[in-house]
Design brief:
With 287 residues, the protein is mainly alpha-helical. The protein is globular and about 50 Å long. The chain contains twelve helices and no strands. The protein has one domain. It is a multi-pass membrane protein.
Length: 287
């Protein structure tokens, strides 16, 4: 049974790591320029992966390299928008649920790109999840989207495209080499942007480097390797809905760390999203 659902279990762990990454990055960007932080984080991640992926990279065809780089560009756009949203947002729990829209529309993107129709049960669970997100939007008593929230919404579109392409190309590209190329492309894109448009402080406090290392080793290298491995053994619709758990963990951590207020509307929103996930998974669990 554990072997059968290996991909689901891996992605469940990835959702927790992804939630932790919100806070690693938030603390690190207290001093780092945001896009430059991501550029350094992913560039070093590429250097760590490269020795392990070198033998696989030499065997890739030009088509496989182009596919992996395309996925990396999508991820670079997503991570840049997510970073800017993180800087401008004061409510990480709310932002995480807005970003989770990408996980809800990923099966639809897969249908559009690769004719992979969502299961019928998805159309039942989707409105419930959307109701949960609507309740979260009203969590402060009014339907309001700040600048950070709007950026998060735009990032959700690119995240959905990245998720679907990554799931599709992971089927015929070795996991380590695909992950390495993705990380390298993000590092190059973000570093170039930061070089031309951002400025750096003269010095950094020692504690910042610990948050930087946590972001690099856990939230970047560890997460991307596990996510690619998990998606290789999991259907895109199932993987997308498992990753909906990420905003739940982010919201809980935000309450514990930042004392983010949790109204009953926000609580109901989290409950609806969890119910949507359970409704979607129930038919498969029965089989």
């Amino acid at each position: 049974m554990q072997q059968k659902y290996r991909g689901e279990w891996i992605l469940f762990l990835v959702s927790i790591i992804a939630a932790s990454g919100w806070f690693f990055s938030k603390f690190a960007m207290a001093e780092f320029p945001p896009i430059g932080f991501m550029g350094a984080r992913f560039a070093l991640g590429f250097c760590i992966f490269l020795p392990f992926a070198y033998s696989q990279l030499k065997q890739l065809s030009n088509t496989q390299i182009r596919q992996a780089c395309l996925v990396g560009i999508c991820y670079a756009v997503y991570i840049s928008l997510w970073t800017l949203g993180l800087i401008h947002s004061q409510h990480l729990g709310e932002g995480a649920f807005l970003v989770s829209l990408s996980m809800l529309i990923a099966p639809l993107v897969s249908w559009l790109f690769f004719k992979d129709k969502p299961q019928k049960i998805f159309w039942i669970s989707l409105p419930i999840a959307m109701l949960g997100l609507t309740l979260l939007a009203f969590g402060r008593g009014q339907l309001y989207f700040s600048l950070g929230s709007l950026i998060f919404l735009f990032s959700s579109i690119t995240a959905a495209i990245y998720f679907v392409l990554n799931n599709h190309f992971a089927q015929n590209i070795p996991v380590v080499s695909l992950t390495t190329l993705q990380v390298g492309v993000v590092g190059i894109c973000c570093s170039l942007y930061s070089y031309f448009f951002e400025s750096y402080p003269a010095t950094f406090s020692p504690s910042i480097w610990w948050w930087f290392l946590a972001s690099l080793l856990i939230a970047t290298n560890g997460r991307m390797l596990l996510q690619t491995l998990g998606q290789k053994h999991c259907q895109v619709s199932t993987a997308a809905l498992i990753m909906v758990l990420e905003p739940v963990w982010t919201c809980l951590l935000s309450i514990l760390i930042f004392n983010e207020p949790m109204t009953w509307l926000k609580g109901m929103g989290c409950f609806c999203i969890l119910m949507a996930l359970l409704i979607y998974r129930l038919p498969r669990l029965r089989r």
